[in-house]
Each structure stands twice: as structure tokens, then as C-alpha cells.
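Would you kindly consider the sequence and fold I have copied below?
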Amino acid sequence: MGQPTLAEAIQQTKREIASLTSQLVALEDAAERLKALPENGGKSRRSKTGIARDEIKPGSHTAKTVEILREVRKPLPVDDLLKRMAEKGKAPPKASLVGALSRHVNKGKVFYRPKPGVYGLLEFKGG
């Protein structure tokens, strides 16, 4: 086995960046949750709309993700979710969607992550 080609090295670097971005979003979310704890001066977990952060707001990108995953009935990579959202209208920035989905995954609600960058609905999770 020789040295990887430039294209292979670029693809590997892109995968590493995607993985690190996902980890960063998860760490930022964890830091947010720590700040929100009452002992750290945090306030209510409800937004100005009265919807708790772990609830899915109708019409949101997270709600659209649920719709897409219910249509296909299987987990999809985040890039496929974004592509399908773009086809139906407007897609959010990748980091925003990953952050929102990660919050639900970390709380064990609505979504699960079978592998990095892939999200599915708990309601269809086998086993």
C-alpha cells in the first residue's frame, strides 16, 4: 500500500472535519446544559414561545427532519436530510441541524444516532 492520493487525503480530511464539528456541537450543547442548571444560575428551560427546548416546534427544521425520516422509515446521513430539506424549501446550516438533532439524541428523545452523522427516529429503531 502506497501513499493515499490527494483526493483520498482530501476526503479523509473532510470526514475528520465533519466528525470534529459534530463533537464540537455536542460539547457546546453540554456546556449550555451545564450553564442552565439552577446551581449555575440557570433559568427555566422554556423559551419565549413557551416551548421547552426538548420539545419539537411545529414547522421547525427538526420537525421537518421528523417528517423526512418518517417518509423513508430509515436513518439518513445529515447531508441527505439537508438535501431533502432543500428540495422541499429551505435547509438550515449543517451545524445548526446537527446541533438540534444532537440535543435530542443526548436526551434520548425522538432521534438516535446509529453512527456519526446519521440520524434516525427512535420510533423505528429496531431491537
